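Question: does this match?
>
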Amino acid sequence: MTIFLNPDLAASKSSRKKRQQAEVAPDTPATERALATLRRSLNKQVKKADNEERLRAKAIADTMPEFIAAMDEEVLTPFFFSLERLATAANRRRIASHPLRPEAVDEMHGDEDAKEERIAEEERKAAEAAERDAKTAKATPQDASAS
């Protein structure tokens, strides 16, 4: 057997790994300035995007009262229903106090809540049945009759 490497001259595993990896470039003042410029540019882009989003949301919020006032009754009911279904519980209560909100929205919520409860109950029963079937299949020896 031939020995290709003299163990006395062999480097440690960590130093071999370090040699394989590219050395980290030293931070020079020019590199630091370039990174600072990049950071400033990215911060400006983020602030600009945030500002645009804030202005967009403000424009929608400012226009919403006139939009709601311009709707007729057949459009108001589904509008308020959809808006409240997406809102958090606290916001849903606040929206429900709007003076132009039709009373029919309460009935729609009641129907939808009952429907969701019915679906959840059916899913729970199906999951319980599947669990019972899995336990029964596990307890029943499948290959006992084949022996």
Summary: The mean pLDDT is 85. Residues 112 and 129 are 26 Å apart (CA to CA). The chain has five helices and no strands.
